[in-house]
Amino acid sequence: MKLLICIDDTDNLESKGTGSIASEMTGIIEQNGWGKCGIISRHQLILHPDVPYTSHNSSMCFDAEIGDRYFDQLKGTLADYLGAESVPDSDPGICIAALETIKNPRALIEFGFRAKWEVLSKDQAYKIASETGVFLEEKGGSGEGIIGALAGVGLRLNGNDGEVKGGIETLIKGESYTVEQLLQEELIFAVCTIDMQSLDPDKNVQIKWKAKPVLHDGKPVLLVALNSQNEWVTLAKNEMRQFGDDRASIEACPKYKADVPEETVDINDNARSCFNCLYRRWTENSFMCTLK
With 60 as the cut, is the pLDDT of residue 268 above it? Predict the structure, then answer.
């Protein structure tokens, strides 16, 4: 049985992060012999005054493959662990989706992309969870973490959102590596430009911020760009987050309506995107969706 497991809203500024709890959950699954876990991915959701969050409003999702007989035990154990490990003033939620039994994956993906640009409610989250047949549970506080948990599963299911938690620590900031060397890392499936063109194996790449792959077609891809000296470097943090915005495709939103031509922007040759929708409103660093 293949699962996607996502948690959200577990911490405060002084506590361990949601990513740490996700890592501990993968340990629980493997130490109990229930199965094996894969990549933990971070998914950025909307930043808005109506949405409470600790610092960045991101959820953490990971995949797992387990024996069918362990599913109910896993659900109960991870949900209880989330409640126990989350701080008292948090609003934790967990979502667990068995890939083989998702009834309407499209609805789940759409919810995930909507959560990046729209303020959503718990009622909406429970409705989608019921329609798609996924496990969704709140474990304290207001329980609004279920919104991010469900959204994270939808985004991970799409396969084209999120970045690998923490990055690859063995690759050092400021150092250069050939593409061939980078591809020897387990968490780098490909080294590509932001338009997803693969680099030749003999090209050199400098680690500018972190070696932090993003997910593309479900695979971890390290993104690079040319600097002012015409050298290949990995993306800085703000560039990576902007790239995440760029990939918010209209394919996940049925409410798209094109803005007037003079307000259209060219994003990777894809005019039909959230960037060109009538309902987006630009903010200082990105934009938000006005649809409710």
Answer: no
